Amino acid sequence: MILHGGEPLLAGPARLRRVCEEFGSALAGIAELDLRIHTNGLQLSPRYLDLFDEFDVKVGISLDGDREANDRHRRFADGRSSHPLVLKAVELLRQDRYSHLNLGLLCTIDIENDPHAVLDALVALDPPLIDFLLPHATWEEPPPRPDGSPTAYAEWILAIFDRWQDQGRPVPVRLFSSVLSTLGGGPSLTESLGLAPTDLVVVETDGQLEQVDSLKSAYEGAAATGFDVFSHSFDDVAAHPGVQARQLGLAGVSETCRKCPVVRSCGGGLYTHRYSPANDFDNPSVYCADLEALVRGIEARTGAAMVSPALSGPRELAAGQHDLTRTLLAALHGTLDGRGGARWDEAWGLAGALEASAEGAAGLDHVLAHPYTRTWLLDVLEGLHAERPEAVGQALRLPSYVAAAAVRAGTGLEVPADFRDGRLFLPTLGELRVGGPGEAGRVRVRAEGEGFTVRREDGGGSRTVRSAAEGPGWLPVRHFALGGTPGFVLDDLDPYRDCFEAPAAPRLGPAEAEAWIEAVGRAWELLERSAPGQTTDAVERLTTLTPLVEGRNTGRPHGYGSIGLVMTGDTRELALSLLRALRRARLRALLDVTDLYALDGAWKYRSPWDHHMKIPFSGLLSIAYERVGLSALDPAFMDGVPEALDMMERAAEPTVGGKRLLVSLRDEVRGVHGTSGMNIRTNTVDQEPVR
Fold first, then answer.
1. Is residue 499 part of a domain?
2. Exposure b/e, 513-525, CB count within 10 A at least 16 = b
3. Is 271 part of a structural domain of the chain?
4. Could you give the dihedral angle defined by the CA atoms of residues 172, 175, 178 and 184, in that order, rounded to the nearest 10 degrees?
5. In terms of Cα–Cα distance, which of 280, 271, 442, 420 is closest to 347?
6. Are residues 328 and 470 in the same domain?
7. Count of structural domains within the chain
8. Can you give the CATH number for the domain in which 51 is found?
């Protein structure tokens, strides 16, 4: 709740105390009261701030910059400057005993003022937040533009942005934070920009319930609802057509705005600023040109720095993926919150001990980077959140991961691990039979020479295994090389490998595995001859291949670097399958660690590959991304790609990272086909919002 006016402090301390008490009493046990007040600061004193401290009322102050700027519109009736009194109020609010109440400063823009002087004056007061507001205007009464520039307000704000950047962004600025957030795929942070629904209701002093009071600058009665607190509820106000219109997001802006690439950031501007007598509020903002120039200007200045490092290359993408896996592991530890008991705590402590040495940390990194470790983590987290009874037991596979890391590190650390159904699975290493079917228990695992030793805790004996060599009861994870590559893992053992759209094949026999590797090798050789750029890229990204069988399966998330393949005797078809899987895996990996688009599904586009079908932006991107890769082997896959790229480049959904990816797709097409992929036909982008 925000107390504002006019000047709310004119109500006096006694009445404001009663307001605070009434609100607190009415909401006790129902909702937490967040009470705020906005003031020009002239009346602010310790008497008020002590009251606000008692009821935790946050305070914002209006200040338009330096003295010259503030005096332009905020003089007393007799011409005296109000600036010294406002500064006194700000300094009072900055005192240690009141600073926790400080919301920051609100500055109304006047382009006659010096933007640098305005920012410097506000920053010098060290507020927790600064917000800049465009002055209220409509198409009927447009804002002043002294030099006639259609983007004068954008130029003024961008001058402040540049100064703010040069100063190292010393204070958060809500306007800039909102634009930067939406450019990166995040939400709008202010009512005046973005497509987020607005849920403000104004209660006037006479009990009238009105829409946001800025509407009063549009025309007489624009904010009225006909409701009051004596006869109506807030639900009645929420159902009012004027309020509903501001809940519609994209569908609530004009047709011009819906087709504009910057609409996610500007949101059509403040609702009030859209008004014209001819079309009511069904217009772009009267500041439309300014808002577009502002968004594009901020993007031009910051876009490169906002792009995720994951888009720079395979190593950066792998690093982002590894950070994500470690974040998920930490989240699992926190979510368990002790439910894993002593076994989890012991394994967690041993993982920490491994981290203490370079060899141990490298071993742990290797196991955590395995693609199906991610599947395990996500399955367990999902199970815990759904309160599935088996989830804690699944979490207790952690000791096996730590044991595998210790073996890889070659340290002398002995790690307890659990076996199930008589089998001990060590991720990235293999599966060892240590008991009979249905038997469960614990073993201790220690690195030994080129392998490891396993000792049952119940005295059932011990065994030393060579990691790479298959032996009685020991099935190692196989490794193989393709051409001059450093080699890949053939993983047909991991219990979490069944995460593709086709079912995972059971463990291959020696002859089957050899035939599978030979078939993949022939497909790889074809790719090396016909699409060398794709295989070079794959060597940097691919670590694990898993055999699949024909059929349908529910795909699940997995980590970076793995693909699944259904075997076929046709080398060309297998090469296309390999290439398709690689492209899908990379795009999915990018989407894991960075936002490439936002508001997916808000618009639908005519598919270039089926003109009877409308698909969202994500569909356009995934198909085009895949087909660009496949076209390196078969140029026919370029069909429809230029049209899709044209659509996506004119779309509102791409973030700065998504735009960078589209540029790289153009470059990739140019490198393979000698053309940028620009559509040579004139297309009307068939795009419509989803209502």
1. no
2. beebbebbeebbe
3. no
4. -90
5. 442
6. yes
7. 3
8. 3.20.20.70
Residue whose structure tokens are 């699409």: 531
Give residue 626's identity as a one-letter amino acid code: E
Instruction: For residues 639-668, give the mean pLDDT.
Output: 95
CB atoms within 10 A of CB 390: 9
Spatial separation of the C-alpha atoms in residues 322 and 370, rounded to whole Å: 9
Listed residues 476, 502, 534: the one ending a domain: 476
Domain final position from 476, 504, 525: 476
In a domain, 571, yes or no: no
Nearest to 407 by CA among 427, 433, 423: 427
What separation in angstroms does the CA of 64 have from each of 46, 118, 198, 464? 23, 7, 25, 77
Cβ-proximal residues to 581 (8 Å cutoff; 6+ apart), any chain: 563, 564, 565
- 304's tokens: 């490169």
Q: Rounded to an integer, what distance in angstroms lies between the CA atom of residue 556 and that of residue 553?
A: 9
The residue among 468, 477, 379, 475 whose CA lies nearest residue 428 is 477
- Going by their DSSP bridges, the two strands 102-108 and 202-203 should be labelled as unpaired
In one letter, which amino acid is 350? L
Torsion, Cα of 645, 646, 648, 650 (10° steps): 160
Domain range for 383: 309-476
Residue type, 235: D
In a domain, residue 416? The reply is yes
In this structure, the answer to whether residues 467 and 601 fall within a common structural domain is no
Distance CA 500, CA 504 (A): 7
- 208-212, 236-240, 246-250: range with lowest mean pLDDT: 246-250
The token pair that represents 314 in the structure block: 């395979």
pLDDT for res 4: 87
Query: What is the pTM (predicted TM-score) of this model?
Result: 0.88
Question: 385: exposed, middle or buried (C-beta count within 10 Å: 0-12, 13-18, 19+)?
Answer: exposed
DSSP letter at 589? Answer: H
Tell me: do 469 and 329 sit in the same domain: yes
Helix (H) or strand (E) holding 603: strand 603-607
CA distance 365 to 28: 50
SS (H, E, C) 58-98: EEEEECCCCHHHHHCCCECCCCCECHHHHHHHHHHHHCCCC
Q: Which two tokens stand for residue 223?
A: 């904010």
Query: In the numeric block, which tokens belong to residue 50?
Result: 């002590």
Q: Per-residue pLDDT tens for 106-150?
A: 999 999 999 999 999 999 999 999 999 999 999 999 999 999 999
**Token pair 């069988």 in the structure block, residue:** 549
CA–CA dist 120, 122 (Å, integer): 5
- Asked if residues 216 and 223 have their Cβ atoms less than 8 Å apart, the reply is yes
SS3 27: helix
Q: Is 126 helix (H, G, I), strand (E, B) or coil?
A: coil
List, in order, residues 6 or more apart from 493 with CB less than 8 Å away: 425, 430, 431, 475, 477, 507
